[in-house]
Predict the structure.
Amino acid sequence: MGKNGSWGIRNKDDGRTEGVVKLNTDLNSNVNDVAEGYESAKINYKYGKTSKEDIRRAKAKYEANRAGTIVHEFVIHGINDMIRVKKGQTQIYNSYKEHVTARKSGSFFREVGLPAIYHIHKILKTGEPKRTIVNNSFKYKN
């Protein structure tokens, strides 16, 4: 599993194929800056070092990060796998190739995934500039 989540396909007993996004449940560890920021904001508020608005914004960023992980897993990995399954091919998980492709100009992730992530940030009022969202969206390892 990646730092935030993973994608997989499993065959169901009824003959259908199911896509599954798994989210990392250990997000308050040192592997996730956004979750760590949310945890820190809660602790700092408890000791009077930050405001409720800071907690709200940190929580919004955390929730946007979680939703962005789902978008990442589905758009970068899931759609490719579903196309292969529909064509009768076996699942060939190649995260390196899929990540490299996603970074390219005009990629499906840039055309569909990033706008979805921007919209999530807008709805949650994270206050993150687009450049930061883009940079964070491409922090993944190949």
The first helix runs from residue 33 to 46. DSSP finds five helices and two strands in the chain. The CA atoms of residues 100 and 142 lie 7 Å apart.
